[in-house]
Design goal:
Oligomer: heterodimer
Radius of gyration of chain A: 21 Å
CATH superfamily of one domain in chain B: P-loop containing nucleotide triphosphate hydrolases
Largest interface: A-B, 37 and 45 residues
CATH topology of one domain in chain B: Rossmann fold
Number of strands of chain B: 12
Order of helices and strands of chain A: EEEHEEHEHHHEHEHEEHHHEEH
Structural class of chain B: alpha/beta
Structural class of chain A: alpha/beta
Shape of chain A: globular
Order of helices and strands of chain B: EEEHEEHEHHHEHEHEEHHEEH
Number of strands of chain A: 12
CATH architecture of one domain in chain A: 3-Layer(aba) Sandwich
Distance between the termini of chain A: 32 Å
Helix content of chain A: 25-40%
Strand order of the largest sheet of chain A: 6-7-8-3-9-10-12-11
CATH superfamily of one domain in chain A: P-loop containing nucleotide triphosphate hydrolases
């Protein structure tokens, strides 16, 4: 993580379009960024901004329309393009890239017990020849994620959301992955349970040096877990920087509005609340302009005529806004 | 809390107990709950899933599904009258008229095959003696009040976004000028920028209609934003009740403290979030004594024996905790 040149994942011009009756829906539109080994990249944005689609494209649960997702090979400095490998190569890659889904109520097969759920990835990939070895591994995984041994014969419906999410995490860890996409892993949970799961994810990362992409709409949660944060709006990354910079000096007007809209559990905090007008526009055939321009209080003619690129405004602080410089001075 | 200012209370819930009697056992959803709300006040009802917040609200509306739900005991005094003694016909006049409710999910609380102005007019016609055309005109006024253009009155719910739908729901709730508004997680299903819009609107309208409000939420940030009083619920009971300022500056109950600490902060770095160990107790099998004692770091012997009483820790800041009562020598 300290090595600046250690680019573990390189995403280049990634696009994912869906064909709909009313035209092409630009779910992820020309997104480029890099992730370092052992880092947590937070991905925030509102519903429909494409953060989950992006997460899925990263590990090829969805085929991208165009672009590259380069994942560094284990033994050498070469990269493999996740979006272009064959199905059999992808199956091998799946051991290295995993996902934890949002809803612990619907992502587990209700007819499998905890034991069977955790064993599933091990069986599918033929990891263990001896059942005793597999048994040891399952026990170990349950221990790692904090599931008591007595629960091994329980079914998902008997467990609460927090425990279910632990099963989801155990499943994704089963194959010793390097890279895990966490798609809103705590948003279905109460704050107390949420804190328990966040601590677990944190300690796992410290122990195994996992690389995370943490997708969430909750900015305080993202701040807590991330090293760097990317803010998405309508399929594009509008700002990307170190987590502290994002909260201290947000450059994009959308980020500023987003931050000001978080209700704080504190009194006497005076801050200007920027209330955005209207709703997020449709992602179907968006015009070639800044996508935030319609709701932006700083928008000028230039913003409506062409889309700004994501540029490095300050070292390590990327923003896609024509007026980013002037607004902050 | 004292006897003599009871007349100023809009809502006084005394010792309310609501059970769900299921085949596998009795769910103690609300147990001996006490709650007061003054005129013009906004009360935040905070707690985790299963704490009994929604059941309390449904109890006030007398909308507990029966069976399996049953109000076992207690009184709900609304403007001096016990709602539990009212006939079903009287209740129907009160619901939507004097007490209105905003439900959590705007996607499911609107009728998908009815234009929004008709849905608002339906409410107005039920409670006021007006003609169809007048009701529709008033419905249009309500829509404008919540920030929806009159031209959209003939649209169906699916033509609106989530935030707009919640505005329609708010318009329905306020259509008959209620004295008490119960909002059950009104913004949980919305994105944060839309949530900010809706909260701003609710604050504005609450003042305009001079209504009292009970806001059910799990988000302490929303409470800080719009409430005057806060009640923290745990396992069917109110464990702490105070003025917002007093509660946020000096939370007394160990559960309240834990709740505050487990929310990641927006401006401070912590390596590990302090957590409350364990889980909410099973409402079918509540622990003896204080329901929080198995998870409480401060628990003493008495906590597992006796239900703690609500004590006043000064200036109406009440909490139900043996340990804290002892510490404050109450």
């Amino acid at each position: 993580m300290n090595d600046v040149n250690d680019k573990y994942i390189i995403v280049k011009n990634l696009k994912k379009y869906f064909n709909t009756k009313r035209g092409r829906l630009h779910a992820v539109d020309d997104v480029s960024f890099e992730i370092k080994k052992g880092e947590t990249l937070g991905l925030v944005g509102e519903s429909g901004c494409g953060k989950s689609t992006l997460g899925r494209c990263l590990i090829r649960l969805l085929d991208s329309t165009s672009g590259e997702v380069l994942l560094k090979n284990k033994d050498n400095d070469s990269y493999v393009d996740v979006t272009k490998v064959s199905a059999s190569e992808m199956k091998a890659l799946r051991k290295r890239v995993q996902i934890v889904f949002q809803d612990p109520y619907s992502c587990l097969n209700p007819r499998l017990s905890v034991w069977e759920l955790i064993a599933e990835p091990l069986i599918v990939n033929n990891i263990y020849a001896k059942s005793a070895d597999m048994r040891r591994r399952i026990r170990e995984l349950m221990d790692t994620v904090g599931l008591a041994e007595r629960l091994e014969n329980s079914y998902p419906h008997e467990l609460d959301g927090g425990r279910r999410q632990r099963i989801g995490i155990a499943r994704s860890l089963a194959l010793n992955p390097e890279f895990i996409v966490l798609d809103e892993p705590v948003s279905a949970l109460d704050v107390c349970i949420q804190a328990q799961i966040l601590n677990l994810l944190n300690s796992l990362q410290k122990e195994f040096n996992y690389t995370y992409v943490f997708i969430s709409h909750n900015l305080s949660v993202v701040r807590h877990v991330s090293d760097r944060i990317a803010v998405m709006y309508l399929g594009q990354i509008v700002e990307l920087c170190e987590y502290q910079d994002l909260f201290k000096s947000p450059l994009h007007p959308y980020t500023q509005a987003l931050l000001s809209a978080i209700p704080l559990a504190k009194l006497d905090v005076k801050r200007e609340r920027i209330i955005l007008e209207g709703d997020v526009p449709s992602p179907i055939e968006p015009p070639n302009a800044c996508r935030f321009a319609g709701r932006c209080r700083y928008a000028c003619d230039k913003c409506r005529q062409g889309a700004p690129e994501l540029k490095e405004h300050e070292p390590g602080h990327f923003v896609a806004c024509y007026r980013a410089g002037e607004l902050n001075n | 809390m004292s006897e003599n200012n009871n007349n100023n209370l809009m809502l006084d819930i005394k010792d309310l107990t609501i059970h769900y009697e299921t085949d596998s056992g009795v769910v103690h959803a609300v147990e001996g709950l006490n709650l007061q709300l003054g005129h013009g006040e906004t009360l935040g009802l905070v707690g985790e899933t299963g704490a009994g917040k929604t059941t309390t609200a449904l109890g006030v509306m007398r909308l507990i599904p029966n069976p399996p739900g049953k109000i076992k005991s207690g009184e709900i005094i609304f403007n001096g009258e016990n709602l539990l003694d009212k006939s079903e016909a009287d209740m129907r006049k009160i619901r939507g008229g004097k007490i209105a409710m905003i439900f959590q999910d705007p996607m499911t609380s609107l009728n998908p095959v009815m234009t929004v102005d008709k849905q608002i007019a339906e409410m107005i016609k039920l409670h006021r003696n007006v003609s169809e055309s007048e009701a529709l005109k008033l419905a249009g006024d309500m829509l404008e009040l919540v920030g929806i253009r009159r031209e959209r009155a003939k649209d169906y719910p699916h033509q609106f976004s989530g935030g707009m739908k919640q505005r329609v729901v708010i318009a329905i709730a306020l259509a008959c000028d209620p004295e008490l508004l119960i909002a059950d997680e009104p913004t949980t299903a919305l994105d944060v920028t839309i949530q900010a819009q809706v909260l701003e609107l609710m604050k504005e309208l609450k003042t305009k209609f001079s209504a009292s409000m009970i806001l059910i939420t799990h988000d302490l940030g929303i409470v800080a934003d719009i409430c005057d009083k806060v009640a923290i619920m745990y396992a069917g009971r109110v464990v702490e009740y105070a003025d917002k300022r007093s509660l946020y500056s000096n939370p007394i109950h160990p559960y309240t403290n834990g709740l505050f600490k487990s929310v990641p902060s927006i401006d401070e770095d912590v390596d590990e979030l302090p957590v409350i160990p364990g889980l909410m107790p099973d409402p079918m099998d509540l622990p003896k004594g204080c329901a929080f004692h198995p998870r409480c770091a401060l628990a003493m012997n008495i906590c597992s024996q006796e239900q703690p009483k609500m004590c006043d820790f000064g200036n109406g800041h009440c909490a139900a905790c043996h340990v804290m009562a002892k510490r404050y020598e109450l």
